Amino acid sequence: MSIMILVAAPPVYSAPITFVTALPVAQDQLVWRNYFDPGYAGDDPTSRDRDLWNLLYNPVFAWGPTADLAIFASLTPQYSFLSENTAQGRLSSSAGGLGDSLIFARYTAYFKDWLGETLRIDPLAGIYIPTGWYNKSNAYGRLPQDMQVGSGSVDPYFGLTAMWKTQLNEFDWDITYRYNPAASSGYQLGNSFHTDFAYYRRIVPWILPDEGLDNQIWIGLETNLIRNGTSQVSGFNDPATGGFVWYLDPGIFYATPFWTTGMAVQVPVIQQLNGPDRLYGSFRLYLYFEYYFMMPSLPKWAQF
Predict the structure, then answer these.
(1) Can you give the residue ranges of every domain in the chain?
(2) Residue 206 predicted with pLDDT over 50
(3) Which residues on adjacent β-strands are paired with residue 145?
(4) Of the residues 83, 91, 127, 281, which has the maximum number of CB atoms within 10 A of its CB?
């Protein structure tokens, strides 16, 4: 019986932070990124004065079996805590567990390399696996949609991503779509459309050394546009679901030859949510740590 040993591998300094579709992955490299991701929504247009905290502890794994192919897998453990005014006084609700899991593959369809510069354009496709709850309730009834982290169905996921990187600047972009079929109970979560953009610039060191690997600090700005469709219950539209949100996310990360850590603060710029009593988000914080491992090479016949 053979034993596989994971050895630390030199990195491809990695951005962006709020989306992983454009994450650089080298051949024979395993990237492990772990998020600590709290978010708060407290802009309540009603007299219920709701406060909602969502905390995600999200591991992401990306493996490069070949120079052109990368395979991603992510889990979304989440804990939610809601407090609100009711006729019985101030009440609190909580929910915790695993959200839906995502597996997708990304393939480099076009690339062009220059001295110290690269351009990549990659289609991607995968599925969301229904490992999360979508109809969780407590003694007072079904919990709000913001506390439901699953769709109840196997959801196709596909899109396109691009990256242009120089020694000083990096641009990342993606566009993705998640189709949510009806769950067995007759519940159907609205489909989701995302497009994201990130720009980062290296500030330390200002001039790269002639030899060797160096620690680096990059700062930048990301933006996310999300359109969620209206959900359906028993074939009827739920008018208090779906809408459009635009976020801005200033970010910073520190990269070493073997690991990277960083953070971004996500702030809503526009929130156009369906329904008169929706709870509006206030902020979301992305904290992450990332480590790089060298994986055994695939045999030549398995590479494409």
Answers:
(1) 30-302
(2) yes
(3) none
(4) 281
CB atoms within 10 A of CB 94: 13
pLDDT per position as a tens digit, 14-25: 789 999 999 999
Measured distance CA(302)–CA(304) in Å, rounded: 7
What is the reported pLDDT for 15?
80
Residue among 185, 179, 167 nearest 117 (CA): 167
DSSP, collapsed to helix, strand or coil, labels residue 278 as coil
Question: Which CATH number, 3.40.50.970, 2.102.10.10, 2.40.160.40, 3.90.850.10, labels domain 30-302?
Answer: 2.40.160.40
**Amino acid present at 98:** L
**Best CA proximity match to 266, nearest among 51, 15, 38, 14:** 38
Specify which residues 255 forms β-bridges with. 216, 260
Q: What is the DSSP string of 77-111?
A: EEEEEEEEEETTEEEEEEEEEE--EEEEEEE--EE
Average pLDDT value for the chain: 90
In whole angstroms, what separates CA 20 from the centre of its chain? 6
In this predicted model, which residue has the larger pLDDT, 97 or 107? 107
Q: Which residues are CB-contacts of 206 (< 8 A; sequence separation ≥ 6)?
A: none
With contact defined as beta carbons under 8 Å apart, do 40 and 280 qualify? no
pLDDT-based confidence at residue 95 (cuts at 50, 70, 90):
confident
pLDDT at position 115: 87
Cα dihedral sign for 236, 239, 244, 248? Answer: negative
Q: Are 280 and 271 in contact (CB under 8 A)?
A: yes
Which residues have C-beta within 8 Å of that of residue 199, sequence separation ≥ 6?
169, 170, 171, 172, 220, 221, 222
Place of tokens 């005014």: 85
Tokens linked to 140? 């007072």
What does the pLDDT read at residue 213?
A: 66
Helix (H, G, I), strand (E, B) or coil at 301: helix
Categorise residue 242: left if φ over 0, alpha if ψ from -120 to 50, beta otherwise: left
